[in-house]
Specification:
dynein light intermediate chain binding; microtubule binding
Length: about 180
């Protein structure tokens, strides 16, 4: 028990020293701190109050956000089975997809046929235009030959006429007929 009393006295002495040290530190802190007037103390209290209010608002917003996220999850879970029925797609959907593919193929074939017929029509138009032009040129040459007799023309005019007949569509046959067949 004497040992316990001695330990108790030592602890009381240490406690007393620690209390004195604490009091000295409080005095030192009070010396370092500027004197607080009532305006700054009130301002500090207001700021602390607004900070607490903002913290409460933030917690409330977080709670609402969690609630919204939970609602979205429940809606997604309820919608998901409707979007993905068990056992695959219904047969109506499968038949509609195959019909759609067949129509797409048919449309592609029709588009290709249209392009072919259009190019063929353009070629036919070009051939008709060139045939009409050639026929007109041949008729013009014949009319020119009929108007001017060969004996009344100069030598140079006769050579031009022969050259023009050779250049036309029927020019080769006409130039063979108008050329003399004498061979030396």
């Amino acid at each position: 028990s004497a040992l316990l009393k001695r330990k108790l006295e030592e602890h009381l002495q240490k406690l007393h020293e620690a209390d004195l040290e604490l009091q000295r530190k409080r005095e030192y802190i009070e010396e370092l701190e500027p004197p607080a007037d009532s305006g700054t103390a009130r301002r500090i209290e207001e700021l602390q109050h607004s900070l607490q209010k903002k913290d409460a608002d933030l917690r409330a917003m977080e709670e609402r956000y969690r609630c919204y996220v939970d609602r979205v999850h429940t809606v997604m879970q309820t919608r998901e089975p409707k979007q993905r029925p068990s056992g695959g797609a219904p047969p109506e959907l499968h038949t509609l997809r195959t019909q759609l593919r067949e129509r797409d193929v048919r449309i592609r074939h029709l588009e290709m046929d249209f392009e072919k017929s259009r190019s063929q029509r353009e070629q036919e138009e070009k051939l008709l235009i060139s045939a009409w032009y050639n026929m007109g040129m041949a008729l013009q040459q014949r009319a020119g030959e009929e108007r001017a007799p060969a004996h009344a023309q100069s030598f140079l005019a006769q050579q031009r006429l022969a050259t023009n007949t050779r250049r036309g569509p029927l020019g080769r046959l006409a130039s063979l007929n108008t050329r003399p067949t004498d061979k030396h």
